[in-house]
Specification:
The protein is of the alpha+beta class. It has 15 helices and eleven strands. The longest helix is centred in the N-terminal third of the chain and has 23 residues.
Amino acid sequence: MELKGTFGGLSSRLGCTHPVYVGDPLNIKLENHVGFDRGRGVFVGLSEHWMQLLKASAFSQKEIEDDPEAVLSSLRIHDKLQRETDKFMLRASTVVEEDEVDNVEEEAVEEADGGHLADDRDEPDFNYRSRPRFHQRRTMTDADINAELKKRSNPEDPRGIYDIQKQLGKGASGTVHMAVNKRTRQVVAIKMMDLNHQPKKELIVAEIDILKQNRHENIVNFVDCYFLGHELWVVMEYLDGGSMTDLVTFIVMTEDQMAAVCRECLRAIEFLHSQKIIHRDIKSDNVLLGTNGMVKLTDFGFCARLTAEASQRTTQLGTLCWMAPEVVKSIPYGNKIDIWSFGIMVIEMIDGAPPYMNENQYRIYYQIANKGKPDIKNAHKLSPELKDFTDKCLQVEVDKRASAVQLLGHPFLRKAMSLKFLGEALTEARKQKEKIMRH
Protein backbone atom coordinates (compact mmCIF):
# COMPACT_ATOMS: atom_id res chain seq x y z
CA MET A 1 0.00 0.00 0.00
CA GLU A 2 1.40 3.37 -1.01
CA LEU A 3 1.81 5.95 1.74
CA LYS A 4 1.79 9.73 1.50
CA GLY A 5 5.09 11.61 1.70
CA THR A 6 6.21 12.74 5.12
CA PHE A 7 4.23 15.95 5.33
CA GLY A 8 2.74 16.07 1.84
CA GLY A 9 -0.88 15.47 2.69
CA LEU A 10 -0.53 17.14 6.07
CA SER A 11 0.85 20.49 5.01
CA SER A 12 -1.62 20.80 2.14
CA ARG A 13 -4.54 20.81 4.57
CA LEU A 14 -3.57 24.02 6.34
CA GLY A 15 -5.51 26.37 4.07
CA CYS A 16 -8.98 27.80 4.62
CA THR A 17 -9.51 27.93 8.35
CA HIS A 18 -13.20 28.45 8.88
CA PRO A 19 -16.55 27.55 7.49
CA VAL A 20 -18.71 30.41 6.36
CA TYR A 21 -22.05 31.60 7.67
CA VAL A 22 -24.15 34.30 6.08
CA GLY A 23 -27.62 35.05 7.32
CA ASP A 24 -28.76 36.95 4.23
CA PRO A 25 -28.19 36.15 0.55
CA LEU A 26 -25.43 38.13 -1.09
CA ASN A 27 -26.51 40.56 -3.79
CA ILE A 28 -23.42 41.21 -5.90
CA LYS A 29 -23.56 44.56 -7.70
CA LEU A 30 -20.99 47.09 -8.79
CA GLU A 31 -20.04 49.66 -6.21
CA ASN A 32 -21.02 53.18 -7.26
CA HIS A 33 -18.36 55.09 -9.20
CA VAL A 34 -15.97 52.12 -9.43
CA GLY A 35 -14.45 51.42 -12.81
CA PHE A 36 -11.42 49.75 -14.34
CA ASP A 37 -8.87 51.61 -16.42
CA ARG A 38 -7.63 48.98 -18.87
CA GLY A 39 -4.93 51.30 -20.14
CA ARG A 40 -3.29 51.49 -16.74
CA GLY A 41 -4.61 48.16 -15.45
CA VAL A 42 -6.03 49.65 -12.25
CA PHE A 43 -9.38 50.09 -10.57
CA VAL A 44 -10.67 53.64 -10.46
CA GLY A 45 -12.79 55.01 -7.64
CA LEU A 46 -12.04 52.38 -5.00
CA SER A 47 -12.27 53.55 -1.40
CA GLU A 48 -9.33 53.09 0.95
CA HIS A 49 -11.11 50.10 2.50
CA TRP A 50 -11.46 48.40 -0.88
CA MET A 51 -7.87 49.21 -1.77
CA GLN A 52 -6.78 47.43 1.39
CA LEU A 53 -8.94 44.43 0.50
CA LEU A 54 -7.41 44.30 -2.97
CA LYS A 55 -3.89 44.43 -1.55
CA ALA A 56 -4.66 41.70 0.98
CA SER A 57 -6.13 39.47 -1.72
CA ALA A 58 -2.76 39.09 -3.48
CA PHE A 59 -4.35 38.77 -6.92
CA SER A 60 -1.77 38.99 -9.69
CA GLN A 61 -1.87 41.87 -12.14
CA LYS A 62 -2.71 39.42 -14.92
CA GLU A 63 -5.69 38.06 -13.00
CA ILE A 64 -6.94 41.58 -12.34
CA GLU A 65 -6.61 42.59 -15.98
CA ASP A 66 -8.11 39.34 -17.30
CA ASP A 67 -11.31 39.63 -15.27
CA PRO A 68 -11.54 42.73 -13.07
CA GLU A 69 -15.23 42.15 -12.31
CA ALA A 70 -14.55 38.62 -11.01
CA VAL A 71 -11.78 39.98 -8.79
CA LEU A 72 -14.02 42.74 -7.48
CA SER A 73 -16.84 40.25 -6.88
CA SER A 74 -14.57 38.00 -4.83
CA LEU A 75 -13.58 41.00 -2.69
CA ARG A 76 -17.23 41.87 -2.15
CA ILE A 77 -18.10 38.30 -1.19
CA HIS A 78 -15.25 38.15 1.31
CA ASP A 79 -16.11 41.55 2.76
CA LYS A 80 -19.81 40.69 3.02
CA LEU A 81 -19.10 37.36 4.70
CA GLN A 82 -16.68 38.95 7.14
CA ARG A 83 -19.12 41.69 8.11
CA GLU A 84 -21.96 39.21 8.52
CA THR A 85 -19.79 36.90 10.61
CA ASP A 86 -18.75 39.82 12.83
CA LYS A 87 -22.40 40.77 13.32
CA PHE A 88 -23.31 37.17 13.98
CA MET A 89 -20.82 37.02 16.81
CA LEU A 90 -22.87 39.72 18.56
CA ARG A 91 -26.36 38.95 17.25
CA ALA A 92 -27.31 35.93 15.17
CA SER A 93 -28.85 36.92 11.85
CA THR A 94 -30.96 33.77 11.90
CA VAL A 95 -33.27 33.66 14.91
CA VAL A 96 -35.04 30.47 15.89
CA GLU A 97 -38.62 31.37 16.68
CA GLU A 98 -40.59 29.33 19.19
CA ASP A 99 -42.80 27.62 16.61
CA GLU A 100 -39.77 26.66 14.54
CA VAL A 101 -38.60 24.22 17.20
CA ASP A 102 -41.67 22.10 16.51
CA ASN A 103 -41.42 22.58 12.76
CA VAL A 104 -38.07 21.20 11.68
CA GLU A 105 -39.03 21.54 8.02
CA GLU A 106 -38.76 25.31 8.26
CA GLU A 107 -35.48 25.50 10.17
CA ALA A 108 -31.94 24.90 9.07
CA VAL A 109 -30.04 23.28 11.90
CA GLU A 110 -26.85 25.27 12.36
CA GLU A 111 -23.74 24.23 14.20
CA ALA A 112 -22.02 26.08 16.97
CA ASP A 113 -19.46 24.83 19.42
CA GLY A 114 -21.82 23.22 21.85
CA GLY A 115 -24.83 23.59 19.60
CA HIS A 116 -24.79 20.33 17.68
CA LEU A 117 -24.47 16.63 18.29
CA ALA A 118 -21.40 15.72 16.27
CA ASP A 119 -18.70 13.63 17.89
CA ASP A 120 -16.52 16.27 19.59
CA ARG A 121 -13.42 14.12 19.84
CA ASP A 122 -10.14 15.81 20.61
CA GLU A 123 -8.62 17.14 17.41
CA PRO A 124 -4.89 17.48 16.69
CA ASP A 125 -3.48 20.99 16.42
CA PHE A 126 -3.17 20.74 12.64
CA ASN A 127 -6.91 20.31 12.10
CA TYR A 128 -8.01 23.62 10.62
CA ARG A 129 -11.65 22.65 10.21
CA SER A 130 -13.13 23.77 13.53
CA ARG A 131 -16.01 26.19 13.14
CA PRO A 132 -16.27 29.58 14.85
CA ARG A 133 -18.40 29.78 17.94
CA PHE A 134 -21.56 31.80 17.39
CA HIS A 135 -23.71 33.26 20.13
CA GLN A 136 -27.38 33.45 19.30
CA ARG A 137 -30.19 35.55 20.72
CA ARG A 138 -32.86 33.21 22.07
CA THR A 139 -36.59 33.72 21.58
CA MET A 140 -37.53 30.83 23.89
CA THR A 141 -36.84 30.75 27.60
CA ASP A 142 -34.52 28.14 29.04
CA ALA A 143 -37.52 26.59 30.75
CA ASP A 144 -39.31 26.25 27.41
CA ILE A 145 -36.30 24.64 25.77
CA ASN A 146 -35.67 22.30 28.67
CA ALA A 147 -39.31 21.23 28.51
CA GLU A 148 -38.92 20.40 24.81
CA LEU A 149 -35.74 18.44 25.49
CA LYS A 150 -37.40 16.52 28.32
CA LYS A 151 -40.25 15.54 25.98
CA ARG A 152 -37.70 13.95 23.68
CA SER A 153 -35.64 12.30 26.42
CA ASN A 154 -35.74 8.86 27.98
CA PRO A 155 -36.88 9.31 31.60
CA GLU A 156 -34.54 6.58 32.90
CA ASP A 157 -31.25 7.35 34.62
CA PRO A 158 -28.52 6.64 32.03
CA ARG A 159 -26.00 5.89 34.76
CA GLY A 160 -27.87 2.67 35.43
CA ILE A 161 -27.89 1.74 31.76
CA TYR A 162 -24.40 2.60 30.54
CA ASP A 163 -20.95 1.74 31.80
CA ILE A 164 -19.02 4.94 31.07
CA GLN A 165 -15.51 4.23 29.80
CA LYS A 166 -12.73 6.30 28.24
CA GLN A 167 -13.14 9.95 27.34
CA LEU A 168 -12.99 10.52 23.59
CA GLY A 169 -13.05 14.29 23.59
CA LYS A 170 -13.63 17.44 25.58
CA GLY A 171 -14.74 20.94 24.66
CA ALA A 172 -16.59 23.98 25.92
CA SER A 173 -19.85 22.17 25.24
CA GLY A 174 -19.07 19.15 27.39
CA THR A 175 -17.38 15.80 27.02
CA VAL A 176 -17.73 12.73 24.81
CA HIS A 177 -17.22 9.28 26.28
CA MET A 178 -17.21 5.78 24.94
CA ALA A 179 -19.70 3.69 26.88
CA VAL A 180 -21.17 0.19 26.93
CA ASN A 181 -24.84 -0.60 27.39
CA LYS A 182 -24.96 -2.91 30.41
CA ARG A 183 -28.02 -4.70 29.05
CA THR A 184 -27.17 -5.15 25.38
CA ARG A 185 -23.34 -4.69 25.43
CA GLN A 186 -23.67 -2.19 22.57
CA VAL A 187 -20.70 0.19 22.41
CA VAL A 188 -21.84 3.79 21.99
CA ALA A 189 -20.56 7.36 22.13
CA ILE A 190 -22.23 9.61 24.69
CA LYS A 191 -22.01 13.36 24.46
CA MET A 192 -22.61 14.88 27.90
CA MET A 193 -23.63 18.49 27.35
CA ASP A 194 -23.86 21.05 30.12
CA LEU A 195 -27.03 22.91 29.17
CA ASN A 196 -25.89 25.95 31.13
CA HIS A 197 -23.14 26.41 28.53
CA GLN A 198 -25.11 25.79 25.33
CA PRO A 199 -25.58 28.99 23.29
CA LYS A 200 -28.05 27.43 20.83
CA LYS A 201 -30.16 24.93 22.71
CA GLU A 202 -33.11 25.45 20.36
CA LEU A 203 -31.09 23.93 17.55
CA ILE A 204 -30.27 20.84 19.59
CA VAL A 205 -34.00 20.18 19.77
CA ALA A 206 -34.34 20.52 16.01
CA GLU A 207 -31.35 18.31 15.28
CA ILE A 208 -32.56 15.59 17.64
CA ASP A 209 -35.88 15.61 15.79
CA ILE A 210 -34.16 15.13 12.43
CA LEU A 211 -31.94 12.36 13.78
CA LYS A 212 -34.85 10.54 15.42
CA GLN A 213 -36.90 10.63 12.24
CA ASN A 214 -34.16 9.47 9.86
CA ARG A 215 -32.23 6.24 10.37
CA HIS A 216 -30.00 4.52 7.83
CA GLU A 217 -27.15 2.02 7.86
CA ASN A 218 -24.79 4.62 6.38
CA ILE A 219 -25.61 7.36 8.87
CA VAL A 220 -24.24 7.64 12.40
CA ASN A 221 -27.57 7.00 14.06
CA PHE A 222 -29.10 8.51 17.15
CA VAL A 223 -29.61 5.94 19.92
CA ASP A 224 -31.24 7.83 22.80
CA CYS A 225 -31.03 10.94 24.94
CA TYR A 226 -31.40 11.60 28.65
CA PHE A 227 -32.10 14.73 30.65
CA LEU A 228 -29.96 14.53 33.77
CA GLY A 229 -29.95 17.56 36.06
CA HIS A 230 -28.49 20.40 34.00
CA GLU A 231 -26.97 17.98 31.48
CA LEU A 232 -28.28 16.41 28.30
CA TRP A 233 -26.74 13.05 27.47
CA VAL A 234 -27.02 12.23 23.77
CA VAL A 235 -26.19 8.65 22.83
CA MET A 236 -24.99 7.95 19.28
CA GLU A 237 -23.51 5.03 17.41
CA TYR A 238 -19.79 4.60 17.97
CA LEU A 239 -17.29 3.99 15.17
CA ASP A 240 -13.80 3.06 16.26
CA GLY A 241 -11.95 4.23 13.15
CA GLY A 242 -12.44 7.97 13.41
CA SER A 243 -12.99 10.25 10.42
CA MET A 244 -12.00 9.55 6.85
CA THR A 245 -9.65 12.53 6.93
CA ASP A 246 -6.83 10.36 8.28
CA LEU A 247 -7.34 7.93 5.43
CA VAL A 248 -7.12 10.56 2.68
CA THR A 249 -4.27 12.44 4.39
CA PHE A 250 -1.86 9.67 5.29
CA ILE A 251 -2.17 7.07 2.53
CA VAL A 252 -2.71 7.11 -1.22
CA MET A 253 -6.08 5.46 -1.66
CA THR A 254 -6.56 2.95 -4.46
CA GLU A 255 -9.52 3.24 -6.78
CA ASP A 256 -11.19 0.14 -5.37
CA GLN A 257 -10.98 1.71 -1.88
CA MET A 258 -12.34 5.00 -3.20
CA ALA A 259 -15.20 3.23 -4.95
CA ALA A 260 -16.20 1.41 -1.77
CA VAL A 261 -16.24 4.61 0.29
CA CYS A 262 -18.06 6.51 -2.47
CA ARG A 263 -20.78 3.88 -2.74
CA GLU A 264 -21.47 3.90 1.00
CA CYS A 265 -21.50 7.70 1.19
CA LEU A 266 -23.81 7.97 -1.80
CA ARG A 267 -26.23 5.57 -0.17
CA ALA A 268 -26.42 7.93 2.80
CA ILE A 269 -26.77 11.00 0.58
CA GLU A 270 -29.44 9.35 -1.57
CA PHE A 271 -31.41 8.48 1.57
CA LEU A 272 -31.21 12.04 2.89
CA HIS A 273 -32.27 13.49 -0.45
CA SER A 274 -35.20 11.08 -0.63
CA GLN A 275 -36.30 12.55 2.70
CA LYS A 276 -35.95 16.09 1.30
CA ILE A 277 -32.91 16.75 3.50
CA ILE A 278 -29.74 18.53 2.36
CA HIS A 279 -26.66 17.77 4.46
CA ARG A 280 -24.76 20.94 3.38
CA ASP A 281 -21.39 19.94 4.84
CA ILE A 282 -20.16 16.84 3.02
CA LYS A 283 -16.40 16.38 3.48
CA SER A 284 -14.01 13.71 4.71
CA ASP A 285 -14.18 15.03 8.29
CA ASN A 286 -17.87 14.14 8.35
CA VAL A 287 -17.46 10.55 7.21
CA LEU A 288 -16.71 8.15 10.06
CA LEU A 289 -15.16 4.73 9.58
CA GLY A 290 -15.14 1.52 11.54
CA THR A 291 -12.23 -0.90 11.55
CA ASN A 292 -14.75 -3.51 10.43
CA GLY A 293 -15.32 -1.52 7.23
CA MET A 294 -18.36 0.52 8.19
CA VAL A 295 -18.70 3.90 6.45
CA LYS A 296 -21.18 6.39 7.90
CA LEU A 297 -22.05 10.03 7.31
CA THR A 298 -22.22 12.21 10.41
CA ASP A 299 -22.63 15.81 11.63
CA PHE A 300 -26.08 17.12 10.81
CA GLY A 301 -25.35 20.52 12.29
CA PHE A 302 -25.89 22.28 8.95
CA CYS A 303 -28.64 20.13 7.45
CA ALA A 304 -31.87 21.60 6.11
CA ARG A 305 -35.17 20.09 5.00
CA LEU A 306 -36.75 21.25 1.78
CA THR A 307 -40.51 21.70 1.66
CA ALA A 308 -43.05 22.44 -1.04
CA GLU A 309 -43.02 26.05 0.13
CA ALA A 310 -39.22 26.25 0.26
CA SER A 311 -37.86 23.94 -2.43
CA GLN A 312 -34.57 25.83 -2.58
CA ARG A 313 -32.26 27.55 -0.10
CA THR A 314 -30.04 30.61 -0.26
CA THR A 315 -28.26 30.61 3.12
CA GLN A 316 -24.49 30.27 2.79
CA LEU A 317 -23.45 27.41 5.04
CA GLY A 318 -20.75 24.78 4.96
CA THR A 319 -16.98 24.73 4.74
CA LEU A 320 -15.53 26.98 2.08
CA CYS A 321 -13.33 24.69 -0.01
CA TRP A 322 -16.20 22.22 -0.41
CA MET A 323 -18.85 24.81 -1.34
CA ALA A 324 -20.65 24.55 -4.65
CA PRO A 325 -20.46 27.56 -7.01
CA GLU A 326 -24.15 28.32 -6.54
CA VAL A 327 -23.65 28.55 -2.77
CA VAL A 328 -20.70 30.93 -3.08
CA LYS A 329 -22.68 33.07 -5.52
CA SER A 330 -25.81 32.96 -3.32
CA ILE A 331 -27.90 31.52 -6.13
CA PRO A 332 -30.91 29.56 -4.80
CA TYR A 333 -29.83 25.94 -4.49
CA GLY A 334 -31.18 22.46 -3.91
CA ASN A 335 -29.73 19.11 -2.93
CA LYS A 336 -27.20 19.08 -5.80
CA ILE A 337 -24.87 21.14 -3.58
CA ASP A 338 -24.24 17.91 -1.67
CA ILE A 339 -23.14 16.25 -4.91
CA TRP A 340 -20.60 19.02 -5.60
CA SER A 341 -19.22 18.74 -2.05
CA PHE A 342 -19.10 14.96 -2.47
CA GLY A 343 -17.12 15.47 -5.68
CA ILE A 344 -14.65 17.66 -3.80
CA MET A 345 -14.39 14.88 -1.22
CA VAL A 346 -13.49 12.49 -4.06
CA ILE A 347 -10.67 14.90 -4.95
CA GLU A 348 -9.59 14.64 -1.30
CA MET A 349 -9.25 10.89 -1.82
CA ILE A 350 -7.27 11.38 -5.02
CA ASP A 351 -4.98 14.26 -4.01
CA GLY A 352 -5.01 14.06 -0.21
CA ALA A 353 -6.67 17.48 0.17
CA PRO A 354 -9.42 19.51 -1.47
CA PRO A 355 -8.59 22.10 -4.15
CA TYR A 356 -7.38 25.58 -3.22
CA MET A 357 -6.22 24.64 0.28
CA ASN A 358 -3.10 26.77 -0.02
CA GLU A 359 -4.98 29.81 -1.32
CA ASN A 360 -6.22 32.72 0.75
CA GLN A 361 -9.97 33.11 1.13
CA TYR A 362 -10.25 35.82 -1.53
CA ARG A 363 -8.75 33.53 -4.13
CA ILE A 364 -10.86 30.59 -3.01
CA TYR A 365 -14.04 32.62 -3.61
CA TYR A 366 -12.65 33.68 -6.97
CA GLN A 367 -11.72 30.15 -8.03
CA ILE A 368 -15.00 28.53 -6.97
CA ALA A 369 -17.16 31.27 -8.46
CA ASN A 370 -15.27 31.64 -11.75
CA LYS A 371 -13.08 28.65 -12.55
CA GLY A 372 -15.68 25.91 -12.79
CA LYS A 373 -14.53 22.34 -12.23
CA PRO A 374 -11.35 22.45 -10.12
CA ASP A 375 -8.14 20.87 -11.34
CA ILE A 376 -7.09 17.49 -9.98
CA LYS A 377 -3.35 17.30 -9.34
CA ASN A 378 -3.19 13.57 -10.02
CA ALA A 379 -5.68 13.56 -12.91
CA HIS A 380 -3.17 11.74 -15.13
CA LYS A 381 -3.37 8.73 -12.79
CA LEU A 382 -7.15 8.34 -12.97
CA SER A 383 -8.95 5.59 -14.80
CA PRO A 384 -11.52 6.71 -17.40
CA GLU A 385 -14.27 5.56 -15.03
CA LEU A 386 -13.06 7.67 -12.10
CA LYS A 387 -12.46 10.69 -14.32
CA ASP A 388 -16.01 10.49 -15.67
CA PHE A 389 -17.37 9.95 -12.15
CA THR A 390 -15.74 13.13 -10.84
CA ASP A 391 -16.81 15.06 -13.94
CA LYS A 392 -20.43 14.15 -13.30
CA CYS A 393 -20.17 15.31 -9.67
CA LEU A 394 -18.52 18.62 -10.50
CA GLN A 395 -20.67 20.05 -13.25
CA VAL A 396 -21.08 23.79 -12.67
CA GLU A 397 -24.49 23.76 -14.34
CA VAL A 398 -26.74 22.23 -11.71
CA ASP A 399 -29.05 20.55 -14.22
CA LYS A 400 -26.07 18.69 -15.70
CA ARG A 401 -24.74 17.60 -12.31
CA ALA A 402 -25.59 13.98 -11.50
CA SER A 403 -27.95 12.99 -8.71
CA ALA A 404 -27.04 10.51 -5.98
CA VAL A 405 -29.27 7.91 -7.65
CA GLN A 406 -27.51 8.38 -10.98
CA LEU A 407 -24.07 8.15 -9.38
CA LEU A 408 -25.00 4.93 -7.60
CA GLY A 409 -25.42 3.38 -11.05
CA HIS A 410 -22.08 4.65 -12.36
CA PRO A 411 -19.60 2.02 -13.66
CA PHE A 412 -16.85 3.34 -11.36
CA LEU A 413 -18.61 1.89 -8.32
CA ARG A 414 -18.29 -1.62 -9.77
CA LYS A 415 -14.64 -1.41 -8.74
CA ALA A 416 -15.58 -1.26 -5.04
CA MET A 417 -13.55 -3.55 -2.82
CA SER A 418 -15.07 -5.55 0.01
CA LEU A 419 -15.68 -3.27 2.98
CA LYS A 420 -13.80 -5.59 5.33
CA PHE A 421 -10.55 -4.61 3.60
CA LEU A 422 -11.07 -0.92 4.33
CA GLY A 423 -10.07 -1.66 7.92
CA GLU A 424 -6.60 -2.63 6.70
CA ALA A 425 -6.22 0.70 4.91
CA LEU A 426 -7.33 2.51 8.05
CA THR A 427 -4.72 0.65 10.10
CA GLU A 428 -1.99 1.69 7.65
CA ALA A 429 -3.15 5.30 7.79
CA ARG A 430 -2.99 5.28 11.58
CA LYS A 431 0.55 3.91 11.52
CA GLN A 432 1.66 6.61 9.10
CA LYS A 433 -0.03 9.31 11.18
CA GLU A 434 1.68 8.12 14.37
CA LYS A 435 5.03 8.06 12.58
CA ILE A 436 4.59 11.65 11.37
CA MET A 437 3.33 12.94 14.71
CA ARG A 438 6.41 11.48 16.44
CA HIS A 439 8.57 13.64 14.23
